[in-house]
Amino acid sequence: MHRQVGVARPQADGFIYRGLMIRHLVMPGNVSGTRKVIDWIVRNLPPDTYLNLMSQYTPVFRASEFPEIDRRVTREEYAQVVAWARTAGLTNLDIQGYRF
Predict the structure, then answer these.
(1) Cβ contacts of residue 78 below 8 Å, gap of 6+?
(2) What digits encode the pLDDT tens for the residues 12-23?
(3) Which among 44, 39, 45 is positioned nearest to 85, based on CA atoms?
């Protein structure tokens, strides 16, 4: 996809009309493999690849049957994910939910 459309960049009106946007849902306890996702992006795409780190996971329906996902992501977990991405060299991060 990156070869076809390049890096996503906002236009003067603030909207992004073209480019690769990666959205990743951060899960409690790193069950979504965030570090592996970040490592893959760093190895395979430019450092200014647009990465949206989503923090809005909410346990619903049968999540209570699975203790590892029966809670929201903590501030500390999300901060760690943001730090991983920044330390890895990613520069175009969309950070949600918590202010840094």
Answers:
(1) 26, 53, 55, 97, 98
(2) 998 999 999 999
(3) 39
